[in-house]
Amino acid sequence: MIETDIEIINKLGLHARAAAKLVSVTAQFQSSIRLGRGERLIDAKSIMALLMLGAGKGSTLRLVIDGGDEAAAHAAVVTLINNRFDEAE
Predict the structure, then answer these.
(1) Which of 24, 38, 49, 55 could share a disulfide with 14, CB 3.0–4.6 Å?
(2) pLDDT(87) > 90
(3) Average pLDDT for residues 25-37, to the nearest whole number?
(4) Dihedral of the alpha carbons of 5, 7, 13, 15, in degrees to the nearest 10
(5) How many domains does the chain divide into?
Protein backbone atom coordinates (compact mmCIF):
# COMPACT_ATOMS: atom_id res chain seq x y z
CA MET A 1 0.00 0.00 0.00
CA ILE A 2 1.21 3.49 -0.89
CA GLU A 3 -0.11 6.44 1.10
CA THR A 4 0.91 10.04 0.48
CA ASP A 5 -0.39 13.59 0.78
CA ILE A 6 -0.68 15.67 -2.36
CA GLU A 7 -1.65 19.29 -2.92
CA ILE A 8 -4.05 20.38 -5.64
CA ILE A 9 -2.10 23.18 -7.34
CA ASN A 10 -4.04 24.00 -10.49
CA LYS A 11 -5.93 27.29 -10.59
CA LEU A 12 -9.45 25.83 -10.71
CA GLY A 13 -8.93 22.95 -8.29
CA LEU A 14 -10.54 19.57 -8.81
CA HIS A 15 -13.32 20.79 -11.12
CA ALA A 16 -15.26 18.71 -13.67
CA ARG A 17 -12.64 18.60 -16.43
CA ALA A 18 -9.81 17.83 -13.99
CA ALA A 19 -11.91 15.15 -12.29
CA ALA A 20 -12.66 13.56 -15.68
CA LYS A 21 -8.93 13.44 -16.47
CA LEU A 22 -8.21 11.90 -13.08
CA VAL A 23 -10.88 9.21 -13.61
CA SER A 24 -9.42 8.51 -17.06
CA VAL A 25 -6.01 7.89 -15.48
CA THR A 26 -7.20 5.91 -12.45
CA ALA A 27 -9.46 3.66 -14.53
CA GLN A 28 -6.38 2.22 -16.25
CA PHE A 29 -5.23 0.49 -13.06
CA GLN A 30 -6.44 -2.57 -11.17
CA SER A 31 -5.37 -1.16 -7.80
CA SER A 32 -7.79 0.47 -5.40
CA ILE A 33 -7.18 4.22 -5.62
CA ARG A 34 -8.71 6.40 -2.93
CA LEU A 35 -8.45 10.12 -2.32
CA GLY A 36 -9.75 12.38 0.42
CA ARG A 37 -9.23 14.30 3.61
CA GLY A 38 -8.59 12.73 6.99
CA GLU A 39 -10.48 9.47 7.33
CA ARG A 40 -12.99 10.35 4.57
CA LEU A 41 -11.62 8.64 1.47
CA ILE A 42 -13.51 8.25 -1.78
CA ASP A 43 -13.03 6.05 -4.83
CA ALA A 44 -10.84 8.07 -7.22
CA LYS A 45 -12.36 6.14 -10.13
CA SER A 46 -15.75 7.82 -9.51
CA ILE A 47 -16.23 11.25 -11.06
CA MET A 48 -19.19 12.07 -8.82
CA ALA A 49 -17.25 11.20 -5.68
CA LEU A 50 -14.32 13.35 -6.84
CA LEU A 51 -16.57 16.33 -7.50
CA MET A 52 -18.17 15.96 -4.06
CA LEU A 53 -14.75 16.43 -2.44
CA GLY A 54 -14.86 20.13 -3.31
CA ALA A 55 -11.07 20.26 -3.48
CA GLY A 56 -10.04 23.76 -4.53
CA LYS A 57 -6.59 25.11 -5.23
CA GLY A 58 -4.34 24.61 -2.21
CA SER A 59 -6.30 21.63 -0.85
CA THR A 60 -4.13 18.85 0.54
CA LEU A 61 -5.57 15.41 -0.12
CA ARG A 62 -4.51 11.99 1.07
CA LEU A 63 -3.86 9.51 -1.74
CA VAL A 64 -4.05 5.81 -0.85
CA ILE A 65 -3.31 3.16 -3.48
CA ASP A 66 -3.37 -0.57 -2.84
CA GLY A 67 -2.86 -3.34 -5.37
CA GLY A 68 -0.51 -5.07 -7.76
CA ASP A 69 0.11 -2.04 -9.94
CA GLU A 70 0.16 0.51 -7.12
CA ALA A 71 3.59 1.97 -7.97
CA ALA A 72 2.61 2.72 -11.57
CA ALA A 73 -0.77 4.08 -10.46
CA HIS A 74 0.87 6.33 -7.87
CA ALA A 75 3.32 7.70 -10.42
CA ALA A 76 0.54 8.40 -12.95
CA VAL A 77 -1.77 10.14 -10.46
CA VAL A 78 0.99 12.25 -8.91
CA THR A 79 2.27 13.26 -12.34
CA LEU A 80 -1.21 14.31 -13.49
CA ILE A 81 -1.85 16.40 -10.38
CA ASN A 82 1.63 17.96 -10.38
CA ASN A 83 1.19 18.83 -14.08
CA ARG A 84 -1.95 20.78 -13.11
CA PHE A 85 -4.14 18.27 -14.99
CA ASP A 86 -2.45 19.46 -18.21
CA GLU A 87 -4.34 22.75 -18.07
CA ALA A 88 -2.99 26.15 -19.00
CA GLU A 89 -2.59 28.42 -16.00
Answers:
(1) 55
(2) no
(3) 96
(4) -20
(5) 1
